[in-house]
Design brief:
Elements lengths: L1 H12 L3 E6 L26 H20 L7 E5 L4 H10 L10 E5 L2 E3 L9 E3 L2 E2 L1 E3 L5 H6 L3 H8 L3 E6 L10 H9 L4 E7 L9 E5 L2 E5 L6 H4 L12 E10 H23 L2
Parallel strand pairs: 1-2, 1-8, 2-3
Antiparallel strand pairs: 4-7, 5-6, 8-12, 9-12, 10-11
C-alpha cells in the first residue's frame, strides 16, 4: 500500500495529476435550490462539500511537495451545468477558492438533454421553451470534447486524472494510493468500488455483461440476481459503483474523440433523414 502511495505522490509532485469534479447536480433531493457542493452537511466546522474537497486537494499537494521537495499543485477541473455554473463560480470566488490558486480551478459546463415523460412526451417549460436537464455523469466526455479542458490538461503536462462525484463526502482527493495502484498495473482506466453487502442497497454494481465490464444500475438488476451469494456468503455482485475513476490522459483523449465522432455521425444521419 505504501509503495502505491509513493508512486501517486511522486506523480503529484511532478505535476502530472489532475482532478475532475462532476458537479452539475442541484440539491433538489436535499431540499435546497442551490448546487449540492454548497450544501451544509451539519459538521461542527460547518464546512460544505466544496470546502472539504478543496482543502483536501490543497493538503495532498502539500504532502507531495514536502516528500519530494518540489513545488506542486493539482489542477481542479469542475464540470457544472447550466443550473449550477454561476452559483458555483460565485461561491468559489467568495471563498477565495478555498486557499487554492484561481488559475488551477477550471470550470466547464456539461450539456443538456430535453426532458420527456415516461410515456414519451416532451416536457415544456413554456409554450415556446423545452424543459431541459443536465445529461448526467456520462456527459463528461461530450463536455470535454466541446471545451478546451483536454488541451489545457495536455499543455500542463497532465498524465493521470482522478474523476469523482460532488456528493462523496469521504472522497480522497487525487487519491495517491488509487492512482499509484493503477499506474503500477499499467491500467489505462480504473474504477474504485465499495463492497455492497445488502442486495437491495440502491447502488449500481460493476460486473461483466457479454464479456465486457460495465456498471449495471440497481434499478436494472433483478432482486433474484442481486441476492445471489458466493460460497463465503458474500454477494456475488458486490462491487458497488461510487463514481470514483482513474484515467490516463491518452485513454481519456481517445474516448473523447470517439464520443465526438459518434455524435457527429449521428447528427449527419439525422440531417439526412
Amino acid at each position: 500500500m505504501e509503495a502505491y502511495r509513493n508512486i501517486g505522490l511522486e506523480k503529484i509532485a511532478n505535476g502530472e495529476v489532475a482532478v475532475v469534479l462532476l458537479a452539475g447536480g442541484q440539491g433538489t433531493r436535499l431540499g435546497v435550490d442551490y448546487p449540492k457542493g454548497m450544501y451544509d452537511v451539519n459538521l461542527p466546522s460547518k464546512k460544505c462539500l466544496y470546502q472539504l474537497q478543496g482543502e483536501r486537494l490543497g493538503r495532498i499537494a502539500e504532502v507531495a511537495a514536502q516528500k519530494y521537495n518540489k513545488r506542486s499543485h493539482i489542477p481542479w477541473y469542475i464540470m457544472t451545468s447550466e443550473a449550477t455554473k454561476e452559483k458555483t463560480r460565485d461561491y468559489f470566488a467568495r471563498k477565495n477558492y478555498f486557499g487554492l490558486s484561481e488559475e488551477n480551478v477550471i470550470f466547464f459546463e456539461q450539456n443538456t438533454l430535453p426532458c420527456m415523460s415516461f410515456d414519451g412526451k416532451i416536457i415544456m417549460d413554456g409554450k415556446d421553451k423545452l424543459s431541459k436537464a443536465p445529461d448526467g455523469n456520462g456527459g463528461l466526455y461530450k463536455a470535454l470534447g466541446g471545451s478546451k479542458v483536454l488541451d489545457d490538461m495536455i499543455s500542463r503536462g497532465i498524465k493521470h486524472i482522478h474523476v469523482y462525484c460532488v456528493d462523496n463526502i469521504l472522497i480522497k482527493m487525487a487519491d495517491p494510493v488509487f492512482i499509484g495502484f493503477c499506474i503500477s498495473k499499467n491500467a489505462q482506466c480504473g474504477n474504485k468500488c465499495v463492497e455492497k453487502t445488502v442486495p437491495t442497497e440502491a447502488v449500481g454494481v460493476v460486473c461483466k455483461v457479454k464479456g465486457k465490464y460495465q456498471v449495471v444500475e440497481y434499478s436494472e438488476i433483478t432482486l433474484k440476481t442481486a441476492q445471489l451469494r458466493n460460497a463465503d456468503g458474500r454477494l456475488k455482485y458486490n462491487a458497488g459503483n461510487i463514481c470514483n475513476h482513474y484515467f490516463t490522459i491518452d485513454f481519456l483523449t481517445d474516448v473523447v474523440r470517439y464520443v465526438v465522432f459518434i455524435n457527429l455521425l449521428q447528427s449527419l444521419q439525422a440531417a439526412n433523414v
